[in-house]
Every structure is written in structure tokens, then in C-alpha cells.
């Protein structure tokens, strides 16, 4: 079943000879349960595409449909609520609140949405990610890999329809990179998540179920692989 879809998505900056076509007619479908990597060099449009998929930026034209909802038909308030409940984000910089414990960071989006955390589910996520024993610690007391695990836990806490990861291993060493990608795969399978990951790392992308190459704002190759190699 298709969980995420774009149709002729365009985003241009500037005009005339200085015009940059960050996205130039991108049409894409992501199936439920996929772990897909979007690959491209700097300036290829991959980050712009991720921002559109998550409703963090608006296109000049085209549509993005997440879980059956055309997100850019929503007003600003509706889109904010939809993102909070249906889309999980994992960023390169972790974005953890330094004065809150790992547990408090993980449940923060739920509390901002006025929801009571399901502690059994939260503990299951933390156990799966191997940081249950770090729940009471502050982010600064954890390694980079452990902080990224906490960021993944936070993204999963609201049971989103899709998880978007923007260079999630960019600040990690090679060992932590492999561990985090393995955990993304594991959580995707265990919690029935669809994951779209942006990366410039071709070797990392090849470990995923699907690899989508973007150049000059266009999809130039889309390869579905026979399962992940991890």
C-alpha cells in the first residue's frame, strides 16, 4: 500500500539565468514498510525533497500525500498537528533538549500534543534501541550514537505513519553509523514503520531496501532491492 506520494513536485529559487530548480517535477511513491534512501550530492535537491515530504516547506506546485492526506491543502495549524502526529523526524544534529532527560526528550512531542505517554510502548522503544538504562540521563552524558538512538525513539513515540531521517548518521563514526542504520531497519520492522532517509553516502544507501538517486532536482534512478543487507 502506498503511504507517501508526490505528484509533479516543483520548487524553484530565483529567476532567469540565476534560477535554481531545486525540485523539477518529482513524482514518487513510497510503499508502507519500505526503508528507502534518497541519495544525491550537495545541491541535488534531496534535502528540499525531504522537507517537502515532511511539510516543512511548501512547493511552488505539485502535491504531497501522506497516509491519504494531501498535506498542502491543510492550513498552517492543521499541518502542524498532522506533522506532530503522523510524521517522525530524525535529524543529523539530534536536536535533543540538553536540560531534559532522555525519557523527557522522548515523550516531549506527546506532551506538547496534550497526550499521555504510553510508558509500556516508550520502554519497548528504548529497550529495542538499547538505551533503556540511559532514560534518566541527560543528552550530554551520552555518546553521539546513543543520542541519535534517543532521537529515533522520540520520532517513534507518537507512532507516526512515516519516519523521515535527514543525514541521520552524518555526525557519527563508521561503527555508530552501521549501528544506527541497523536500528532504523530493526525499528522499521518491529514497529511497522516506513522510513525515508536522506544521505550522500552511497555505500550506506546500498544497504537499504530501495535507493532513489536525485540530480538537479530530478529522480534519475530508482532501484528497488531484494531486502536490506543488514
Your description of this structure?
- The chain is of the alpha/beta class and 230 residues long.
- The protein has a single domain (34-59, 68-224), classed as P-loop containing nucleotide triphosphate hydrolases (Rossmann fold).
- The chain is 32% helix and 29% strand.
- The protein is built from seven helices and ten strands.
- A six-stranded mixed sheet has the order 6-7-8-3-9-10, with helices on both faces.
- Helix 3 runs parallel beside helix 5 and helix 5 packs parallel to helix 6 (174-190).
- The protein starts with a strand and ends in a 6-residue tail after the last strand.
Task: Kindly list the characteristics that best describe this protein.
single chain, 230 residues, alpha/beta, Rossmann fold
CATH architectural name: 3-Layer(aba) Sandwich
Q: How would you classify the helix and strand content by structural class? A: alpha/beta
| Main β sheet profile | 6 strands, mixed
The first-level CATH class is given as Alpha Beta
Report how far apart the termini are: 24 Å
Strand order of the largest sheet: 6-7-8-3-9-10
Brief rundown of the structure:
This protein is α/β, with parallel strands linked by helices and 230 residues long. It has helices at 46-53, 76-86, 102-112, 119-128, 144-156, 174-190, 202-205; strands spanning 2-13, 20-31, 35-39, 61-66, 69-70, 87-91, 162-166, 194-199, 210-215, 218-224. Strands 6-7-8-3-9-10 form a 6-stranded mixed sheet, sandwiched between helices. It has a 4-stranded antiparallel sheet with strand order 2-1-4-5, covered by helices on one side.
Amino acid at each position: 500500500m502506498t503511504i507517501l506520494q508526490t505528484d509533479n513536485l516543483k520548487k524553484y529559487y530565483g529567476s532567469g539565468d540565476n534560477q535554481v530548480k531545486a525540485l523539477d517535477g518529482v513524482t514518487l511513491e513510497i510503499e508502507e514498510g519500505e526503508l528507502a534512501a534518497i541519495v544525491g550530492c550537495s545541491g541535488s535537491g534531496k534535502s528540499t525533497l525531504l522537507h517537502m515530504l515532511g511539510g516543512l516547506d511548501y512547493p511552488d506546485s505539485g502535491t504531497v500525500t501522506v497516509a491519504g492526506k494531501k498535506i498542502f491543502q491543510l492550513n498552517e495549524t492543521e499541518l502542524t498537528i498532522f506533522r506532530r502526529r503522523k510524521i517522525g523526524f530524525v535529524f543529523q544534529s539530534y536536536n535533543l533538549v540538553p536540560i531534559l532527560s532522555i525519557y523527557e526528550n522522548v515523550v516531549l512531542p506527546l506532551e506538547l500534543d496534550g497526550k499521555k505517554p504510553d510508558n509500556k510502548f516508550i520502554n519497548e522503544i528504548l529497550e529495542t534501541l538499547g538505551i533503556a538504562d540511559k532514560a534518566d540521563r541527560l543528552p550530554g552524558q551520552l555518546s553521539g550514537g546513543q543520542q541519535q538512538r534517543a532521537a529515533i525513539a522520540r520520532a517513534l513515540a507518537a507512532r507516526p505513519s512515516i519516519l523521515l531521517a535527514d543525514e541521520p548518521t552524518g555526525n557519527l563514526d563508521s561503527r555508530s553509523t552501521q549501528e544506527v542504520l541497523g536500528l532504523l531497519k530493526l525499528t522499521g520492522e518491529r514497529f511497522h514503520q516506513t522510513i525515508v532517509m536522506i544521505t550522500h553516502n552511497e555505500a550506506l544507501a546500498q544497504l537499504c531496501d530501495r535507493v532513489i538517486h536525485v540530480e538537479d532536482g530530478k529522480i534519475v534512478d530508482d532501484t528497488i532491492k531484494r531486502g536490506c543487507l543488514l
